[in-house]
Design a protein that fits this description.
By secondary structure, this protein is an alpha+beta fold. It has seven helices and six strands.
């Protein structure tokens, strides 16, 4: 039964990876997509992914301590960031890391994105924060990503890209698209003038939608 589930999830990872590639959020050789199998195990795209050539047997099976289970391809060292999110947030079923162009631009400026659009709150959880600068491919990057994520489903990684998580692969793919569009709109608005955030009093309903439908933060971060 578990074997069937894993085979199915391998296909799910391939589908998600090819979707973010087709949407221009990653180029060959960058980014990674993972899904949770159970409490202690995940499946993740291999290092230096060639998206068009990706197939289920190339997906790497590993535990949350970073051990690869079985033979075959190896994961990217960026998987440490995914593992940190799965360990800290039991509800997360999918993590995506990409280097999409507009998010990458904001990441170099280390800019947060204030709440400027309703869908940002509904899908992503609020202001998108940028991490402190850390050395790439380290444990420190995972801790830094978790801090910037807070309760949210997405964060900007300083001078690097984005991390996105969700309760399902479909959620995480959708959030990745929403995040890149948001970054593009924010960047564009900054060229014209000073973007104005949505006043907090107008956000109550959207906050409820986020919490009810899309949030995947741990119980300890509940505000009420
Ligand atoms: Zn990266």
């Amino acid at each position: 039964m578990e074997t069937d589930k894993i085979e199915q999830l391998r296909k799910t990872v391939v589908r998600g990876a090819q979707e973010i590639h087709s949407k221009g959020l990653v180029e060959d050789g960058e980014g990674n997509v993972s899904v949770r199998i159970n409490k202690n195990e995940i499946l993740v795209t291999p290092t230096s992914t060639k998206y068009d050539l990706l197939s289920p047997e190339l997906i790497v099976h590993m535990d949350l301590d970073g051990n690869v289970l079985g033979t075959g391809k190896i994961p990217s060292t960026e998987v440490k960031m995914h593992l940190a999110v799965y360990k800290d947030r039991p509800k997360v079923k999918c993590v995506i890391h990409n280097h999409s162009p507009y998010i990458s631009m904001l990441s170099i400026l280390r800019k947060n994105i204030p709440i400027i659009m309703e869908q940002q709150l509904i899908f992503l959880g609020g202001e998108i924060r940028c991490t402190e600068i850390t050395e790439a491919h380290t444990e420190e990057m995972g801790a830094s990503a978790l801090k910037a994520l807070g309760r949210n489903n997405a964060a900007i990684l300083a001078n690097h890209g984005a991390i996105i998580c969700g309760k399902s692969l479909d959620h995480a793919v959708r959030f990745s698209v929403v995040l890149e569009k948001l970054a593009m709109v924010y960047w564009g608005a900054l060229q014209i003038g000073e973007p104005l955030p949505i006043p907090e009093k107008n956000l109550e309903e959207h906050e409820k939608m986020f919490t009810r439908l899309f949030a995947c933060f741990p119980k300890r971060l509940r505000s009420t």
